[in-house]
């Protein structure tokens, strides 16, 4: 029977913790610059000799304050779940700062070992750490590793297991002692805690420190646990805080922080040597170009352009293959299945629906690969650095730039990319603003409408639409921030990690992780959505047509059958052609009426009063409603409704003009398309990444904005007489 | 003076006993030590004095005693942003203002009747009933002014010296030429090398310049000393009041400068974040560069790079500012 052990991995962001986790467990993880990417605890398993290890990757944090969900998650896990060992992963080139978290981890009372990771980078920088001395001073084992070369993993596990054995045999952790005044305070509160009899599970010192630091979470917990004794404890803490304030003219947390850094400085002095002569700072040299005053932004724009080029041109090939595969499938189904409702559902509902989404998979994968490349090399942080000023004017963070940029391609991965944002407020705000970045699916609509009504100015009009989208996003951002998201912005402070050559394996893992998420979660939803739309557009089956089309078709066919049989060989060709044209026209008319009278058509007509004030007739209304499934569908629905089938193109343009639609009305439609509800998949993504409430809010908000803007445009146009 | 002291002591005994203040005898010792010292004293000064008097009283106790004395009007308290709080005898009825030399720390007491009257007049004009006031003037005392280094022409400076350009003793044309090279009054320069017929090679920030003898003779410079005041444009920040001039807010530092963090202000989350990223009192901080849009700033702290917004950097007060000499880094 194997012995079971739980290990928790803790450390700063960027210390290579996730790489080590991957090495140990073989599971998939995200390596990112920003805390909050691993906000969910990730677990993995490892068999080592006769041990069954469960390894938990805690969120990367710089400290253990109660101010962020990551920190609270990390410390709660250690205190409540009591893992057998906490493995503190430390970036060997950042020992001094890393020790700030390390000291706090030690205070949590579990056995700890230090892992000095990225030892090769430290060595290249000329940093020498005397790990034996460090081990002696801290009273715990210290090991070196090189995570991205998979070196030192076995040694890590062995050391951890040995240390656990020592603790089982009675070793106790050695607390770090601070200055006299601080220690007096800690003792006085600790005494009160012990006296009160509240069960501290051996963590009386840590709890005393937290209470002195005015830690809201711990204080609340204490209040709920004890009956009346907490007042004495809080009183003792209050008195101490006042004393410290008087003596040092600063509050307890700050004085303790100073103390901690003092202890750390002492440790670092004794254990770290800097061989200045060996210092090479490759990252700094690279940054001389990449964040240069003049070249930084142009280079960034270039990289982004490359990213989009790769996504759309490289992605076009696999896209083509998938499209062919989907149509191949459709054709086969068409040929081989007996006609039935199920068949129609399968072909026009399921296959068409899923097909329209799957076809984007290559694009999405390439896009995610590029994003993973940016993140793993460390360039993402520079991008945020360059763009922060711009984003700040919209009330956002530099980190929001990439998700919003991705929104120009497709909103779904863009919203998923907001995971990299730390603050929840920023995340939700970015999610709400991204849909205003006109996604690529809306482009066909612009092309058709602008092409029909604005001909040579079409390009300018489309550019104007994109630009307006951005402006409205920015204004929305500021409005929402001041109304709904009041309060402090999260600090921008962000580490600029040294550039690293990413492991190809980990890039692939990240790309596939996100792609998989897209497929799994969206696939299911799109499938359901497509079926619903299919149902809505195909029922009711019994439609009372204005004409008896069937009879008409039969009569036309027989009419022409006669003509053809009595015609000469030359005329047969043209007659057959004529016949097919007439039949097509009749079919189109029939289809047009059928759609109009289907449920979805009825919905459109019912919404007519809603759309009339903004100059949109019932056909575009229905098309807009169908756009909820996917924006590309708008064009095909328009085609059907204007009687030219679902092809689009010139025929549609002609039909639109003939229908009496005006340029102004077309503009109003385009503005509406720009701003209104994003597609179903996006809404579901918002639901998953934010919450149902925000998804609902987004639905309503975007529609309101769209309607108001369309209204403004249409009415302004009418007044200016261009009606 | 002696009469006043006895009077103070009597009042002290009466009040403190009346109020039932604890450890009366020890507190009396504090008062006596306080009265012995004629000038403005800090808690540390008092503790030292008490040690001399063979009385070992701990700092916290002395502090609470002084606070009591302050409360009862035996002492006035002067709180400075950058120094320890000082206490001063308050012989009721005698008021004076202070001038503080930011270089040597000397405090000058003064009382100007016209000033006192003017303050009342101003208060009245605003319909304000003045109860009391406190005024402090910061500057350089006459001793320190004398010590200020004189100006020398550039060509007389030595290799390796760090200097500030103070004046340009030249006609308009020459001034134009000098400024077109990128050199102006207030620039901090370092002498890279001299010689070659009077030519001077200087480093102005990141730029290297060569000045001919004629030009160098006309540029008047002054030794850049940590303790000499700089003609820097310092932005007063509400957290710091008037910072003494060898310190700057991080947001005002230029790229290539480094210094030591003196104080970290800011509210709640921001301050915590700054501290846990390693920006605390006493840490060396180096400004690597500003982003192309002038915001945010990239800095190096404890050996690693990070970025923060200018508005966040305005919470960090940095002292001992100089230009870092980065050769092969």
Index terms:
heterodimer; A: 723 residues; alpha/beta; Rossmann fold; Helix Hairpins; 4 domains; six-stranded mixed sheet; two-stranded antiparallel ribbon; 32 helices; 9 strands; 7% strand; elongated; B: 329 residues; alpha+beta; Arc Repressor Mutant, subunit A; Dna Ligase, domain 1; SH3 type barrels; six-stranded antiparallel sheet; 10 helices; 31% helix
Helix and strand arrangement:
The complex is a heterodimer of chains A (723) and B (329).
Chain A: E1 3-11, H1 17-25, E2 42-48, E3 51-57, H2 69-81, E4 85-91, H3 95-106, E5 112-117, H4 119-124, E6 127-129, H5 131-138, E7 142-144, H6 153-168, H7 180-196, H8 204-212, H9 216-225, H10 230-248, H11 252-271, E8 272-274, H12 282-290, H13 296-336, H14 341-358, H15 361-377, H16 379-393, H17 401-406, H18 411-416, H19 424-433, H20 443-454, H21 458-483, E9 494-495, H22 504-538, H23 549-565, H24 569-597, H25 599-606, H26 608-611, H27 618-626, H28 632-641, H29 649-658, H30 663-675, H31 680-689, H32 692-719
Parallel strand pairs in A: 1-3, 1-4, 4-5, 5-7
Antiparallel strand pairs in A: 2-3, 6-8
Helix pairs in contact in A: 3-11, 5-11, 7-8, 7-10, 13-14, 13-15, 14-22, 15-22, 19-21, 20-21, 20-29, 20-30, 22-31, 23-24, 24-25, 25-27, 27-28, 30-32, 31-32
Chain B: H1 2-19, H2 24-36, E1 41-42, H3 43-52, H4 59-71, E2 75-78, E3 86-89, E4 97-101, E5 107-110, H5 113-125, E6 136-139, H6 142-147, E7 152-153, E8 162-168, H7 172-180, E9 188-195, E10 199-204, E11 207-211, H8 213-218, E12 219-223, E13 247-249, E14 257-264, H9 268-276, E15 284-290, E16 297-301, E17 304-308, H10 310-313, E18 316-323
Parallel strand pairs in B: 4-6
Antiparallel strand pairs in B: 1-3, 2-3, 4-5, 7-12, 8-9, 8-12, 9-10, 10-11, 13-18, 14-15, 14-18, 15-16, 16-17
Helix pairs in contact in B: 1-2, 3-4
